[in-house]
Amino acid sequence: MSADTAVIDGYVAGTWTIDTVHSDVSFYVRHLGVSKVRGHFATFEGTIVTAEDPLQSSVNAVIKTSSVSTNNETRDAHVRGEDFLDVEKYPEMSFTSTAIRPQTSELFEVDGELTLHGVTKAVTLTLELNGFGKGFDGNPVAGFSAATEISRGDFGVTGGAAGAAVSDKIKIALEIEAGLAQS
């Protein structure tokens, strides 16, 4: 299958800036094997380049680890600490894409490198292209949803003594709106 501008409605090539007001970087992890604890990161930034050939597009994003929130300040302090994210030593995590593969005209796999806790590993995001349109100001906007699952152990995030209560697998979900950079 080939993905080209003819099969992607409204496709616009260009450089896009992630709109952090209308985007969300969230995750969930199982706690004690019976419930899911959800959280998100409030501070992040990124650039998406949509190439003339959509399969040559790319994304780069940086997330401030200290911006993690699970709606419980005691838990958040622990997650920011040395047992988990160690935000003093590792203030950022980043993602840089390396390849894009089509699944359908709206679903893609985005391979990339995730750096977390000082460790870089290959990850694949399942990406849904939500569409291209016009914002309230008339400028082009684009929307994407993406998801992946990582092993925190692969990144050296042990959780210390509390690690046994939290699953190794972390599901990550991204809801991204981006605006076309004006030249």
From TrEMBL:
Pfam families hit by this protein: YceI
Coiled coil spans: none
Bilayer-spanning residue ranges: none
Domain Lipid/polyisoprenoid-binding YceI-like: 15-179
Origin: domain of life: Bacteria
UniProt-listed SMART domains: YceI
Similarity-based family: Belongs to the UPF0312 family.
Protein name: YceI family protein
Native organism: Actinacidiphila epipremni
Lineage: Bacteria, Bacillati, Actinomycetota, Actinomycetes, Kitasatosporales
